[in-house]
Amino acid sequence: MDSADEWMAGYRRAWLSNDADDIRSLFTEDAVYRRTPFAEPWVGREAIVTAWLAIDDQPELTTFEWTELGVADGLAVVEGRTGYPELGVFSNLWLLRLEPDGRVSQYREWWMRDRRARSA
Predict the structure, then answer these.
(1) Tell me: the pLDDT tens digits for 15-44?
(2) In the 8-state DSSP scheme, what is residue 98?
(3) Which residues, in sequence order, are CB contacts of 23 under 8 Å at separation 6+?
(4) Distances (CA, A) of 102 to 11, 26, 57
(5) How confident is the chain (120 residues) per 10-residue block, as mean pLDDT?
(6) CB-based contact 98:104 (threshold 8 Å)
């Protein structure tokens, strides 16, 4: 896969729908999903779906934009910006291991809140 844009569009679609099949379509069977550097990862597609849906995020209230910073040897680097009405704005940096079929086998995220911004 030459670009993470298609995967990111699918991620946004899954985030907006919170549909298990939309989430499932993004990840390989044995995918590893790391939301923060020190938390236990979600391991396996079904564990990712279960954990994702348990968060109960309200995506229709958020803003989200991303920029693909680069892809080399199947590793994509994506910079994102997420705004929540109650929590403020977050900067995200993602590393995605893209497989030839377009799914991700490894997802790693770092995020931090912009203390200057108060709303989405």
Answers:
(1) 889 999 999 999 999 999 999 888 899 999
(2) E
(3) 14, 48, 49, 52, 53
(4) 12, 8, 25
(5) 82 92 98 93 98 81 90 94 89 96 96 73
(6) yes
The letter for the amino acid at 53 is L
5-114: CATH, from 3.50.50.60, 3.40.50.720, 1.20.1250.20, 3.10.450.50: 3.10.450.50
d(CA 120, CA 90): 9
Instruction: List strand residue ranges (DSSP E) for the chain, in order.
Output: 27-34, 42-43, 63-72, 75-84, 88-98, 104-114
Q: Is 103 helix (H, G, I), strand (E, B) or coil?
A: coil
